[in-house]
Design a protein that fits this description.
heterodimer, A: about 425 residues, alpha/beta, Aspartate Aminotransferase, domain 1, 4-stranded antiparallel β-sheet, about 15% strand, globular, B: about 160 residues
Chain lengths: ~425, ~160
């Protein structure tokens, strides 16, 4: 496996590195895992790295003077170096959290609760995941600020004209998703960040569905905050990342208090540790950081550009395959240059839950529901959709299995 | 191992009677001048159920269910409207409780009590689908409680 951007990645060969995908189902068939937008599968080397940490050098970080503790700290901080490198961001402004949701909540509480006032506005898009909506609603409830939702066009893109009309003098925060987990839309985050900054507002980019799938340069995007999670990018659950613009974290008060995040504690009060540790109270997810670091090295060896190139091909195959299914409606953009490989769809006369259940019987794993984007689904006038989402290990076989199962599903439920 | 899901078990879950109720819903709609109404939803999938009852002399003279949902939730609602109609309120509550226990695997289904809803027995094996089946049935329980509360207060 080279790292040339000129040769396509070999998804079939890569599958062999993922134990779950390489193991056949009880009936001998392959697992067609099409729910990577929910969580990705994990390559053996990530599991090995975490296992080795526990077996060889399990100790708490930033504390002990003994060698094992120093080694644990080194492996943990190497995980930070890896994620910072992947998104081209300074390591000291790269904070580990529990997940992307906690990263956004960190900003909502440490910045929003202290800085927002009545009359201030937070602008979010209608296609945000609940994780980039609900924290702002909570903070608005406390501070008297208002959350405004920018509509999405019928084609599934942020209505940029509407956004320009909304972002103004009252706007303090613009929070947008880089790639929609429901529609697959790739949003013009650089343009949105520039628009917000011109109005004097801060920005939060939810990069949960972009970092695993394409090159993401946090410095080039230029947002004040950018959040993503480990478990959707071949890493473990329990670890997320907040990348903050230089100066932001220094100016903020802590989110959670406790061990590790302090410089000094007296009976009169406390002072804070340097960044990023100021925002990492308590024992951090050490094995998870080690695993995530290994996941990043895995991605780097393949190359984010090649992952993106592969997913464009898969996205086109998915579009073509889904178009062959009678009665199927795809939501979101159809141009693979403007979308990732996550597809929400509905099938005439068959409820998404039933689609999910039927497809499971064919070894095809898809998500059914609102995908934590209820405002978006309401605005589209649908209650729930089925969603098939691909990743670097998705093959044509998976796409064909999806298409065939959907055709059969429709017949089975008598909708044909 | 959950891997492979319900291989070969689809027919077990989706019995013909369920698909029949799904395709040809009984008791669908709303009741003008209902004695009690509730609106329930399943936050996991967004499925919704509106349930109306008309109570005459302590009996469910009419019952209708409306809303959107999967085949299991829609068939369960359809079956409920058939089996609960003309029942006394106490009987209807016993019926709901029996169905709830069956769905949680805590009782053997009694066809004499459940009617067509006995076909939903297989749902008990799929924990994520149990909520689908129970949505309208628990709505009836809440509806009866609301009715009793209102009549107790209002006389």
């Amino acid at each position: 496996m080279g790292n040339s951007t000129h040769t396509a990645l070999d998804a079939t060969a890569l599958r062999a590195e993922f134990p779950l995908l390489a193991t056949p189902r009880p009936d001998g068939g392959a697992v067609h895992y099409l729910d990577s937008a929910a969580t990705s599968q994990k390559p053996q080397r990530v599991l090995d790295a975490m296992d080795a940490y526990y077996r060889e050098t399990n100790a708490n970080v930033h504390r002990g003077v003994y060698e094992m503790a120093a080694e644990a700290t080194e492996r943990f901080e190497a995980g930070r170096d890896a994620v910072a490198r992947l998104v081209n961001h300074p390591r000291e402004a790269t904070v580990f959290t529990k997940n992307a949701t906690e990263a956004i909540n960190l900003v909502a509480w440490a910045w929003g609760v202290r800085e927002l006032r009545e009359g201030d506005e937070i602008v979010v898009s209608m296609m945000e995941h609940h994780s980039n909506t609900v924290p702002w609603q909570i903070v608005a409830g406390i501070t008297g600020a208002t959350v405004r939702f920018c509509p999405v066009t019928p084609g599934g893109e942020i209505d940029m004209d509407a956004l320009r009309g909304m972002v103004g003098g009252r706007t303090r925060m613009v929070a947008v998703v880089h790639v929609s987990n429901t529609l697959g839309t790739i949003n013009p985050v650089e343009e949105i960040v520039a628009m917000a900054h011109e109005a004097g507002a801060l920005t939060m980019v939810d990069a949960t569905q972009s970092v695993p799938h394409m090159p993401v340069d946090a410095t080039a995007i230029g947002s004040d905050f950018l959040a993503f999670t480990g478990h959707k990018m071949c890493g473990p659950t329990g670890i997320g990342v907040l990348a903050a613009a230089p100066g932001r974290l220094e100016a903020m008060e802590p989110f959670l208090g406790g061990g590790e995040m302090i410089s000094d504690v007296t009976t009169e009060g406390s002072t804070w540790n340097d960044i990023p540790w100021k925002f990492e109270a308590g024992t951090p997810p050490i094995a998870e950081a080690v695993g995530l670091g290994e996941a990043v090295r895995f991605m780097e060896e393949i190359g984010p550009e090649r992952i993106r190139a592969h997913e464009k091909v898969v996205a086109q195959s998915m579009l073509d395959a889904l178009d062959e299914v009678p009665g199927l409606t795809i939501y979101g953009p159809r141009d693979v240059e403007r979308r990732g490989a996550s597809f929400s769809f509905s099938l005439d006369g068959v409820h998404p839950h039933d689609i999910g259940q039927f497809l499971d019987s064919k070894g095809v794993c898809v998500r059914a529901g609102h995908h934590c984007t209820k405002p978006l689904l309401r605005s589209m006038g649908v209650q729930s959709t089925a969603r098939a989402s691909a990743y670097l290990y998705t093959t044509d076989d998976d796409v064909i299995a999806l298409r065939d199962a959907l055709v059969e599903c429709r017949e089975w439920f008598g909708a044909a | 191992m959950v891997r492979g899901g319900l291989m070969g078990g689809l027919d077990d879950l989706y019995q013909q009677l369920i698909l029949d109720h799904y395709r040809n819903r009984r008791g669908r709609g709303r009741i003008d001048g209902a004695s009690a109404s509730v609106h329930e939803h399943n936050p996991v999938c967004g499925d919704e159920c509106y349930l109306d009852i008309l109570v005459v002399d302590g009996r469910i003279a009419d019952i209708r269910a409306d809303g959107d949902g999967c085949s299991i939730s829609q068939a369960a609602a359809s079956m409920l409207t058939e089996v609960a109609k003309d029942k006394e309120l106490g009987e209807a509550l016993d019926l709901v409780e029996h169905f709830r226990l069956v769905m949680h695997g805590d009782a053997e289904p009694d066809e004499d009590i459940l009617g067509d809803a006995v076909a939903l027995e297989g749902v008990a094996k799929y924990p994520v689908r149990v909520k689908c089946a129970l949505l309208s049935w628990l709505a009836l329980r809440d509806c009866i409680a609301d009715y009793r509360e209102t009549t107790a207060m209002g006389g």
